[in-house]
Specification:
This protein is α/β, with parallel strands linked by helices. The protein is built from five helices and five strands.
């Protein structure tokens, strides 16, 4: 079964980089806004969501809460710049399963996603 991975970031370049890194692992869906992300969680039922910590319309924590309301089993990974990594770490108890530091190490990102897929029921 092909896995669905949702990449949520308001920066198109960031979405493209993550898309290209993860393309070998499944079907990649992209969203640039909170509304688009939540619609895709509801309609497409991705197994994994990679979410930028800083979004312009809705903060990452609010998106996590809303996404988990729609799909409590959704695995969420926060994407964070080095300077806000502590914020990302503090959010781990709010719902994300992990965080990935920017700039991205392609093999490290793929390894983390594979690890999370093996943990998903």
């Amino acid at each position: 079964m092909v896995k669905k991975i949702l990449v949520v970031a308001d920066d198109a370049g960031q979405r493209r980089v993550v898309h290209d890194i993860l393309e070998p692992l499944g079907t990649i869906l992209e969203a640039s806004t909170d509304k688009e992300a939540l619609r895709l969680v509801s309609t497409e039922k991705p197994e994994l969501m990679l979410l930028d910590v800083v979004m312009t319309e809705m903060d990452g924590i609010s998106i996590i809460r809303a996404a988990h309301f729609l799909d409590p089993a959704l695995t969420i990974v926060m994407l964070a710049d080095e300077h806000i990594i502590e914020t990302a770490r503090r959010t781990l108890d709010k719902g994300p399963s992990a965080y990935i530091k920017k700039p991205f190490d392609p093999e490290g990102v793929r390894d983390e996603v594979r690890r999370l897929f093996t943990r998903r029921p």
